[in-house]
Structure formats: structure tokens, C-alpha cells
Amino acid sequence: MPTIYFDILGDADTIIDDEGIKLPNISMAPEMALELLSQAMARRGTGGVTKVELRDQNGPFLRVSAAVFSLQRKFR
User: Fold this and answer.
1) Are 63 and 51 in contact (CB under 8 A)?
2) Average pLDDT of the segment spanning 59-67
3) Which of 15, 17, 63, 74 fits a disulfide with 8 by CB distance 3.0 to 4.6 angstroms?
4) CA distance 33 to 50
5) pLDDT class for 73, splitting at 50, 70, 90?
6) Cα–Cα distance for residue pair 74/76, rounded to 1 Å
7) Angstrom distances, CA of residue 45 to CA of 37, 39, 70
8) Mean pLDDT in the chain?
């Protein structure tokens, strides 16, 4: 089983996964990355860009990202 590492990259901070998760099937990794991205964005609570980068023993192989920005509107 391959070990997959899920690193979280934000505008202000980076969390490097030193432990990883052994997955019986690597095809599970993209769905897990999207779930982790959703959780990271919810915890963050502010706008900006958050990325989850997946890597194995050969290096990075997938990155998912989301951007949330507030629009400032002036009303008359």
C-alpha cells in the first residue's frame, strides 16, 4: 500500500504531513484531498487561497485548491 502525504498550503501558513496515510487504492486520494480542502477552508473562516498537495515517495502528484474573496460593493 502506498503512503500518501496531504500537505495544506495557505496564504499565511503551511502544514506539512510527516506521517501520511497508507491507502489500499490510490484512486481514493483525490476525494480525500477535496474533503480535507473543504475542512481547511471551513476552519480558516476568512478569504484567500488554500491548497492541498498530495505526494508520495516520488514527490507531488496532485494539487487541489480553492479561492474565496469578498467583493466590496458601494451602495448609493
Assistant:
1) yes
2) 95
3) 15
4) 12
5) low
6) 7
7) 13, 10, 12
8) 89
Q: How far apart are CA 31 and CA 35, in angstroms?
A: 6
Query: What is the distance between the alpha carbons of residues 46 and 21, in angstroms, rounded to a whole number?
Result: 28
Residue 53 pairs in a beta bridge with 7, 63
Phi, psi of 36 (to 5 degrees): -65, -40
- The cell 507531488 sits on which residue? 60
Residue 58 has a CB neighbour count (10 Å cut-off) of 7
The C-alpha cell that represents 14 in the structure block? 503551511
Whether 55 contacts 32, CB under 8 Å: no
| Whole-structure pTM value | 0.83
Q: Which residues contact 58 (CB under 8 A, 6 or more apart)?
A: none
End-to-end alpha carbon distance in the chain:
60
